[in-house]
Specification:
Elements lengths: L25 E7 L11 E3 L2 H6 L4 H7 L4 H11 L5 E7 L4 H6 L6 H7 L6 E5 L14 H19 L5 E5 L24 E4 L1 E3 H4 L12 H10 L25 E3 L3 E2 L7 H6 L5 E4 L2 E6 L21 H18 L17 H20 L3 E8 L13 E7 L17
Parallel strand pairs: 1-3, 1-4, 4-5, 5-6
Antiparallel strand pairs: 2-3, 7-8, 8-9, 10-11, 12-13
Helix pairs in contact: 3-8, 10-11
Pfam families: DUF2586 (PF10758)
Protein name: DUF2586 family protein
InterPro entries: Phage_HP1_Orf23
């Protein structure tokens, strides 16, 4: 008997949203004087400077208190653009980089990440201390000691499925490049998820007094990172010019020692070699750029060709892959699958599960975020007793032109 409707087409179910993947979501935690409209250790969400102003974070607040709170928010939005989600938390000025990153009371950096619903991709930690630190080998001990704690927090975040990159404010630089620690060679520390910022907008800093002058513009770098593609160097010369003459921003680059770059020009290459991040001008190119996308870890390539995450971009790519793969595979967990005579997954089922990961890699490759990727499921995965699917994901990143090394000659003939 025929159905008079002739054809019956129903709408299928839609799985996890692979496009719900906003890489710009950021966070910042700042030590601050009391903000009348915002309690300490309370996470709030901003989408622009107007939102910050509603909580009392204004240019006047910074000026009246001789601090840099609004400054970091303003610089974030100047570079990331209005409308980008910034999760913000203020803590008392008695807090240090170490106490914020170690967070033994679970009410500072960890609280900020959890309150942000696991969505934060990059965050910054900034201070407004009331007492000047005493540099040892050119850096305040708090700055150096915070690196390992920040890495520990980043690893905790990754294990809780909220991978993120952390920018630390390298405040009050107080020594020559020859004596500061080599951030890529810190003993027993390989902080692939931590970047140390020591650069500042010198002209702005000169409007401050005392230790407020010796801050680092970590909000600037956070904003650039939020604006950058996940595989893009935050120092991309063509894409990111920190200078803005209309806003008198970054007209004169300097370091958190409150010295202009040109005063210590001969030291800048050593700061670069040691993995510090700052603003830089290039002969023949107008404007100011971030010098590089360093992390506090050595460069490692093992015998099998595996790379460690020795740049911010590599780390962001790996974090993004982990987030997307988890989202895509979660609906497949605890589903029932057929097995063959040996209790293993049939080839067809394995291929279909591998395709889930490969589709993500194909999308990222088409977006020029990676050069390629491959998902491989272990055919010996035990779904009867261990109920464990063993999967290997291999990702080939895109390359970066770090510098041009060429030779030029005059020729009598061409």
């Amino acid at each position: 008997m025929a159905n008079l409707n002739a054809a019956d087409i129903k709408k299928g179910k839609v799985g996890a949203n692979r496009l719900n993947n906003d890489r710009r979501v950021s966070a910042i935690i700042v030590s601050s004087p009391v903000i009348p409209l915002l309690a300490f250790k309370e996470t709030v969400q901003f989408y622009g400077l107007f939102d910050a102003a509603q909580k009392g974070i204004t240019e006047a607040f910074d000026k009246d208190n001789n601090v840099n709170v609004y400054r970091h928010v303003r610089e974030f939005y100047r570079n990331a653009g209005e409308g980008v989600l910034l999760n913000f938390m203020a803590v008392p000025q008695t807090e240090t980089l170490v106490s914020i990153c170690q967070d033994t009371t679970n009410d500072k950096l960890k609280r900020l990440l959890i309150d942000s619903d696991f969505k934060v991709r990059q965050l910054a930690v900034a201070l407004n201390p009331t007492v000047a630190g005493v540099p040892v080998d050119g850096l305040v001990p708090d700055v150096v000691d915070a690196i390992s704690f920040a890495q520990g927090m980043a690893e905790l975040a990754y294990n809780q499925f909220m991978p993120t990159h952390i920018f630390l404010e390298g405040y009050q630089l107080g020594g020559l490049s020859s004596v500061v620690p080599h951030l890529r060679e810190i003993e027993n520390v390989a902080a692939t998820k931590v970047t140390m910022v020591i650069g500042q907008d010198w002209q702005y800093a000169d409007t401050k007094t005392g230790i407020a002058q010796k801050f680092a513009d970590v909000g600037t770098v956070l904003g650039v990172c939020a604006a950058a593609a996940i595989n893009q160097n935050i120092g991309d010369n063509e894409a990111f010019n920190l200078m803005d003459a209309k806003k008198s921003a970054w007209m004169i680059p300097g370091l958190s020692s409150h010295q202009k770059n040109k005063e210590i020009f001969e030291q800048l290459q050593t700061f670069e070699d040691k993995g510090y991040v700052f603003g830089l001008s290039y002969a023949g190119l107008a404007g100011i750029r971030i010098n590089n996308d360093h992390v506090c870890a050595p460069i490692i390539i093992d015998d099998e060709g595996n790379l460690n995450e020795h740049t911010i971009a590599y780390g962001r790519v790996m974090d993004d892959c982990a987030r997307q793969l988890r989202t895509a595979y979660l609906p497949k967990i605890k589903k029932t699958y057929p097995v063959d005579d040996l209790g293993k997954l049939p080839t067809g089922v394995r291929v279909s599960l591998e395709t889930i990961g490969d589709n993500i890699f194909n999308d990222m490759e088409n977006a020029v975020e990676i050069s390629g990727g491959k998902t491989t499921i272990d055919p010996d995965s035990d779904l009867l007793v261990a109920k464990e699917l063993k999967v290997a994901f291999n990702v080939q990143p895109t390359g970066v032109l770090g510098y041009l090394n060429g030779t030029i000659n005059l020729k009598s003939t061409q």
